[in-house]
Design brief:
This protein is of the alpha/beta class. It is built from 16 helices and 16 strands.
Length: 407
């Protein structure tokens, strides 16, 4: 795409922060991709998280208090944050913060109006060709502010809509605003079907572009005697049930296998105590958040996703891309079912079914030929989710549905 600076199409990407999570990773990848394709990209976030995904082309950098050109962007009682908005790549992806500092805050109701007004001012200042918003109430805020200023908004629902809009107020907000969106991006057919017809007409199913580090040849060789999960340590991910099933599956055989959790979250201490109470001892490991996840898991024997709800799970896509034998719950709203054909490139089990999970673990650990066939077939997800393929679908969508209207 050969454009002069003045001709560049401008995408403003709106999300709470760039903290380590699936939606944030996809948006960070998309920001760098569109920038490299010749678009102007601005990242609009509510706040700065303590640990965030790094953008290759970020125009900003986090700096200590008192540094040259340091700007206060968050001032909670603990861990205030400063940014040099021009301390990164010259001409790179700019960042704007929409959260209220303490001096700007009033009572709760007034703060809501102030946040809306601040966002409207941001859109007027940026003058984007389109706003791309991710997740829950961000989507409602983006539509209710940017459309009033005349800017089209594309929202993306990253999880099960019933979970992302679980409260009455969120659901009401979604139903009253999504009809004004220029587009609604969802992760699966199941997610699309949960919306009323007038919103379904606006829906497009677009793939999550994978992290390039997971696009590689499948490891061929002796596999480590490990069963792995990559997920936030949270009750929705069902690590406790996985530990119970792992114990039952390996009590009389496979006792040399370990269960390894990658990721962190609010349930870490509770899950560590539960592992001890099950008598699993050093057979369960909690690795926390790690860099270069692909290197940590590519030699594992088995990958498990046991969630109650998912959109299109990045961790499952990545494990399949590496060629791991995978077990997943057939959870709403259908993301795993769109990825796995049971018995062909993985195993699907009912949500919350510990016995089915136990049986599936035994089936894979006890049959090397089956595990190898499942893993080999799983690598074919690369044909749809490899970055160059998936990113191209996002680009084509925006060119067709948004930018073609402005030519």
């Amino acid at each position: 795409m050969t454009t002069t600076h003045s001709e560049k199409k401008h995408i403003a990407m709106y999300i709470g922060s760039l903290q380590k999570g699936g939606a944030e990773r996809v948006m960070a990848n998309l920001a760098d991709y569109f920038f490299e394709q010749g678009y102007k990209v601005t990242m609009v976030t509510t706040y700065l998280a303590p640990v965030e995904y790094e953008l290759k082309h970020a125009a900003w950098e986090r700096v200590p208090a008192g540094a040259d050109e340091a700007e206060l962007v968050m001032d909670p009682d603990e861990n205030p944050a400063w940014i040099n908005l021009n301390g990164g790549e010259k001409g790179g992806i700019k960042r704007v913060f929409s959260g209220l500092l303490k001096e700007e805050q009033k009572d709760r109701l007034t703060n809501f109006r102030l946040r809306q007004n601040k966002l409207r001012e941001i859109w007027r200042e940026l003058k984007p060709d389109v706003v791309l918003s991710f997740i829950g109430k961000n989507n409602i805020m983006a539509i209710s502010t940017a459309t009033k200023e005349g800017f089209p908004v594309v929202v993306s629902v990253r999880a099960d809509p019933d979970m992302e809009y679980s409260s009455l107020s969120l659901k009401s907000g979604m139903l009253s605003t999504f009809g004004k969106a220029a587009g609604v991006i969802v992760q699966s057919n199941g997610a699309k079907e949960k919306f009323p017809k007038y919103i379904q007409k606006k829906c497009a199913i677009l793939p999550n572009p994978m992290n390039p580090s997971f696009v590689r040849k499948r490891y061929i060789g002796d596999r480590e005697k490990s069963v792995v999960m990559v997920a936030r340590l949270h009750e929705n991910k069902n690590q406790s049930m996985v530990m119970e099933a792992f114990k039952d599956a390996t009590e009389n055989q496979f006792q040399d296998y370990k269960l390894v959790f990658y990721g962190d979250g609010p349930d870490r201490i509770k899950l560590q105590h539960y592992a001890a109470s099950l008598g699993l001892g050093n057979r369960v490991e909690f690795k926390g958040n790690v860099k270069h996840v692909a290197e940590h898991i590519e030699k594992a024997k088995l990958f498990i996703l046991a969630s109650n709800h998912e959109g299109m799970p990045n961790s499952l896509i990545e494990a399949m891309s590496l060629g791991l034998a995978c077990i997943s719950t057939d959870c709403p709203c259908g993301g795993p079912r769109d990825l796995i054909t049971d018995g062909i490139n993985g195993l699907l089990i009912p949500v919350g079914d510990k016995k089915a999970l136990t049986d599936a673990i035994v089936k894979i650990l006890g049959n090397e030929h089956l595990a190898d066939n499942l893993g080999e077939a799983a690598t074919r997800v690369q044909k749809r989710f490899a970055p160059d393929v998936a990113n191209a679908e996002w680009k084509e969508y925006f060119e067709r549905t948004i930018f073609s209207r402005t030519k």
